[in-house]
Design goal:
- This protein is of the alpha+beta class.
- 26% of the residues lie in helices and 22% in strands.
- Helix 1 (4-13) packs parallel to helix 6 (175-197) and helix 5 packs across helix 6.
- It binds a DNA duplex (14 and 14 nucleotides) through residues 1-3, 6, 49, 63-69, 78, 94-95, 97, 142, 144, 151-154, 201, 208-209, 227-231.
Length: 243
Amino acid sequence: MPEGPSIVILKEALAKFKGKKIIEAGGNTKVVLPELEGLKVIDFKSWGKQFLICFKGFAIRVHFLLFGTYRIDERKDAKPRLFLRFANGEINFYTSSIQLIEGDLDEIYDWTADVMNPLWSAAKARKKLKAAPDMLVCDALMNQQVFSGVGNIIKNEVLFRIKVHPLSTIGALPAAKLNALVKEAVVYSFEFLEWKKKFELKKHWLAYNQKTCPRDHVPFKRKDLGKGRRRTFYCESCQVNYS
DNA sequence: ATACATGTTGGAGC
DNA sequence: GGCTCCAACATGTA
């Protein structure tokens, strides 16, 4: 469920509840929320992997982390972490992180950092990267302040696509590679979105979870790299280490 | 069956 | 204070 494009799919799927009044709400979240019954959902927004249910004066943030799921007009056996029922249907969130966000979302969220947002700014992303020359490229792509919405699959596929080794440092990247990094993070995210909608995402993976490099036909390296020690697949033959 | 995974947070320890 | 490491969370899939 988690990477940015999946949250965009959720947002689109819930459009029918926009402007609708909640007739019942609940769930086993320990987060204390305002009384929701009778309130209208003003909008659904997303910032990277975060899903935002917007009300007048506050929002509920849903983050699916690793195991989160949801059902629309259906229920699983498990107790929902949060559910909202409307006259025209219901949404159930399971095993997700819930937070109450108070205040102006435009002040809290930098929309230009979200790779899926129309306000995304490649120039700002490049600027943030240039300010951190020692950062590893594998960490840079996972950095939600720079590439909000990019996750481990997109990271692996982008690095393979632009032929850059995950342990390259940002400062050592040639300008063309830095530009390609920023550009492909967005391009791949939108391709991910289309493939995911067609339930054919996995068949397009060239590096993630793969055994052999489709370019050079040598075995992929598979190591836990970067600050988060996240699973990384890469080809030491075709992905150049700039450092 | 066992291991592993599209993620983040917060605390311990240095 | 900052950095890194690690546990915790909790469930479907291979």
